[in-house]
Amino acid sequence: MKVITMCGSLKFESDIRYWSEKLALEGNCVLSIIYPTADDKDAYTPEQHKQLDTEHKKKIDMSDAIFVVNKNGYIGSSTKDEIDYAKARGKEILFLEN
Fold first, then answer.
1. Confidence band (pLDDT; 50, 70, 90) for 41?
2. What whole-number distance in Å separates Cα of residue 45 and Cα of residue 30?
3. pLDDT, average across residues 56-60
4. How distant, in Å, are the alpha carbons of 41, 64, 80 from that of 8?
5. What is the pLDDT, as a whole number, of residue 10?
6. What is the DSSP-derived secondary structure letter of residue 22?
7. How far is the C-alpha of 66 from the C-alpha of 79, rounded, in Å?
8. Spatial separation of the C-alpha atoms in residues 54 and 61, rounded to whole Å
9. pTM score, two decimals?
10. How many whole angstroms from its chain centre is CA 31?
11. Average pLDDT across the chain, whole number
12. Which of 49, 56, 61, 98 is least buried, going by the fewest C-beta atoms within 10 A?
């Protein structure tokens, strides 16, 4: 069993949920993204954004790998930062698309 943290744009929420479930059913422990409950993600304070980012990086620290949902090849700046963070820590990087 691998511990895998999901990464990707929040606009791919349904895809991230699908792949989280698929990877879990394959026997992996999947750590997912916290999805904003506010209608507008700008409703969060800068401190809350930073807290969620820090917590996501802690998930990467605990993981063997990250799974990047790069639908249609899209990787946003936050996801790129997460990939760089994972690479710097020697984590396996798995992509939905090559």
1. low
2. 27
3. 97
4. 16, 17, 9
5. 87
6. H
7. 11
8. 11
9. 0.91
10. 8
11. 93
12. 98
